[in-house]
């Protein structure tokens, strides 16, 4: 017997607004039934599980133990700039002079995620 990964759940203070941010990040739509004020929302990814946002009463207080890693279809640095323009904040720089490494950003509620090199940069 096995289990199938249904979703990646993200606790948050405002499910709809955070789902909108991640919808812009991924270029994928919200569930068609989601609307402002919903306490649970989903971003429907092209493949794999959905991103599920669930409102909780407590704020984020420490570093994530689980995080998302994004591989952009552009360069890593171009994607970092785009995401900063969407409302992300820069957390840490693990980019190396030889072009390897990643950047750590946080979404509008402080959840950290990594931006990896794009496919063309890895070739």
UniProtKB/TrEMBL annotation:
It comes from Lentzea waywayandensis. This is Glyoxalase-like domain-containing protein. Residues 8-116 form the Glyoxalase-like domain. It comes from the Bacteria. PANTHER family: CONSERVED PROTEIN (PTHR35908:SF1), HYPOTHETICAL FUSION PROTEIN (PTHR35908). Coiled coil: none annotated. Transmembrane segments: none annotated. SUPFAM superfamilies: Glyoxalase/Bleomycin resistance protein/Dihydroxybiphenyl dioxygenase. Pfam families: Glyoxalase_6.
């Amino acid at each position: 017997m096995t289990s199938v990964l249904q979703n990646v759940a993200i606790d948050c203070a405002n499910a709809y607004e955070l789902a909108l941010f991640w919808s812009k990040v991924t270029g994928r739509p919200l569930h068609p039934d989601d609307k402002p004020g919903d306490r649970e929302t989903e971003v429907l990814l092209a493949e794999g599980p959905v991103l599920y946002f669930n409102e909780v009463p407590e704020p984020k207080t420490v570093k994530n133990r689980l995080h998302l890693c994004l591989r952009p279809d552009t360069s890593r640095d171009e994607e970092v700039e785009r995401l900063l323009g969407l409302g992300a904040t820069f957390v840490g720089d693990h980019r190396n002079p030889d072009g390897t490494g990643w950047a750590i950003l946080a979404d509008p509620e402080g959840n950290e995620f990594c931006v990896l090199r794009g496919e063309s940069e890895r070739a």
